[in-house]
Amino acid sequence: xxxxxxxxxxxxxxxxxxxxxxxxxxxxxxxxxxxxxxxxxxxxxxxxxxxxxxxxxxxxxxxxxxxxxxxxxxxxxxxxxxxxxxxxxxxxxxxxxxxxxxxxxxxxxxxxxxxxxxxxxxxxxxxxxxxxxxxxxxxxxxxxxxxxxxxxxxxxxxxxxxxxxxxxxxxxxxxxxxxxxxxxxxxxxxxxxxxxxxxxxxxxxxxxxxxxxxxxxxxxxxxxxxxxxxxxxxxxxxxxxxxxxxxxxxxxxxxxxxxxxxxxxxxxxxxxxxxxxxxxxxxxxxxxxxxxxxxxxxxxxxxxxxxxxxxxxxxxxxxxxxxxxxxxxxxxxxxxxxxxxxxxxxxxxxxxxxxxxxxxxxxxxxxxxxxxxxx
Length: 375
Fold this sequence. Notes:
Layout lengths: L1 H23 L5 H40 L7 H14 L3 H8 L8 H14 L3 H24 L4 H25 L9 H28 L6 H27 L5 H34 L9 H24 L3 H50 L1
Helix pairs in contact: 3-5, 5-6, 6-7, 6-8, 7-8, 7-9, 8-9, 9-12, 10-11, 10-12, 11-12
């Protein structure tokens, strides 16, 4: 009996071995193998991502807490920001880096953002990549400017933050303007012309953004910030004009080059038309204010300069139609100086009118009070 059981067990083992041999010879479809491997790899990758996000969130919380609890002295803040930026990048803190890139002045991670940008510029392997990064940085500053203008900070805080962003934009414009003359090298004319077009577009973008910001900033803007905004606008204007001059100076202009120049002049003409109309409107409005200020010659000067600017603009348009771009540019330079001076006069006129209107309102209120008291 015992011997019979051993025989049965041996037969059972033999059957199992035979089945295993059969299974060894089974070859699954290659598509099924690839699918299973892909699912396994995806699962492993998702687990890795979940761990990284958890780590980043923890780092971000700790960084915010630490930064708020301790801020180094002003002299050490730049180096401190660079150190933190490098630690974040080397540590694989993707979420922290992203949070820094979305920050604005006043946020704890803003110094890290600036440090990341500067580090990126220093290690950029090519000039074209560096120029693209500079474009992105200016775009980032302009986005910050729009956010800050809309924020509900106090006038003092808003002035300080806006001034920080505007100064950064100003420095970038200085860099752009200094780089443009290098484009006159014969072996790099095409690259330089392309760079000039990029710089020109960037300068125009800055000018429009600053103009919009000035309109939305509170009336309590301090004089230093007002001067800085005017300085940046002027720098953007000069940078744009210098880039246009380079485009015009190209010896053999293709039809595409002429098209770009015509488009640039068209933008400038529209911009100057609006500026001249604004100046004329200020002069007309000033003449309606009844006071001794009306008799001052400043209004007449403003109106005369607006008329002169309008005449020069007509000459620019005529030269552009004849494709006499050099003559158009020289006339445009004179026009810019006249408009710039007229805008300063217009600002003075507006301040005078504002004071006169306030004075008249006070007089009317006093008269009404006296009449009421006599009844």
